[in-house]
Specification:
This protein is an alpha/beta fold and 316 residues long. The chain folds into two domains: 194 residues, NAD(P)-binding Rossmann-like Domain (Rossmann fold); 97 residues, UDP-galactose 4-epimerase, domain 1, CATH 3.90.25.10. Helices cover 43% and strands 15% of the residues. The strands form four sheets. A six-stranded parallel β-sheet has the order 3-2-1-4-5-7, with helices on both faces. The chain has a three-stranded parallel β-sheet with strand order 6-8-12. The structure holds 2-amino-3-ketobutyric acid. 2-amino-3-ketobutyric acid binds next to loops.
Length: 316
Amino acid sequence: MDNILIIGAAGQIGSELTLELRNIYGHNHVFATDIKDAPSDVRESGPFQLLDVMDDKHLIHFIIRNRITQIYHLAAVLSGNAEKLPTAAWQINMNSLMNILEVARLVEDVEKVFWPSSIAVFGPTTPRKMAPQITVMEPVTVYGISKLAGERWCEYYYRRYGVDVRSLRYPGLISYKTEAGGGTTDWAVEIYYDAVRQGSYRCFLKEDTKLPMMFMADAIRATVNLMELQRSEISLHSAYNINGISLSPAEVAEDIKRHIPGFAISYYPDFRQDIADSWPENVDDTMARNRDHWGPQYSLKEITDTMITELTRKLA
Ligand code: AKB
């Protein structure tokens, strides 16, 4: 019987992944944790506890006591916030991952680890279109540097100690349940919230800045699929590229007008423009597609329809 630990269960990915994993593995077998309170459905549909991944002693006790077999470590300081406090972000992102890798090495029950990487591992010298799986990687943000170093550590723990760690390079994720916090791709969530709340959005990127994006349901499916594969089916223990849909603020704004004809967008690029300009427009995810027939299901129209419908209900 699998027992799953989610670290960062109150976050944008964790709050949705926890519910999906509880449906698959049983509600009492998915232990949701965070350093802050989680949404009520996460707290009430199974075990939830405050847990700080930086506290390695508490972490290892929790994992042994609850006979944890799979860990999803989703906590991180995202790209925008990391630029404000680079050394603190580096320490949090790296030390938390090292704590998880060490626990997975030491505790025999732990069979698998999921840790998210990001398109932020790429930099301005990576091809901007269809960034290959293996390519030049010179990230210029502290978040990107921590993700690239993290990928290398994951592969190191696999090769050296046999730790079965799996990862995806997530693009920007669009979701209505929990707002994103501190990333460069946050505009693609904020735009829908502000469209529903006030009919207008002040965007922190230029109108034509295209970035890789994905609807949360697709990201959850990609993650669960990856974790359900046999160990022998995983050829990469750094992180797989996964591609969704490449979107600019102007394209999303235009699509929102199907629902809110008077929607107005204005552009005031800030420091996050430089981050966005260093990332690719889309990525080549042939390796992930060949591995488990991965493919995104949500088009821009379906994303917009779902976001507007769900947020209208939520914010009513
Ligand atoms: C961010 O914008 O920092 C994240 C990411 C692309 O990893 N959403």
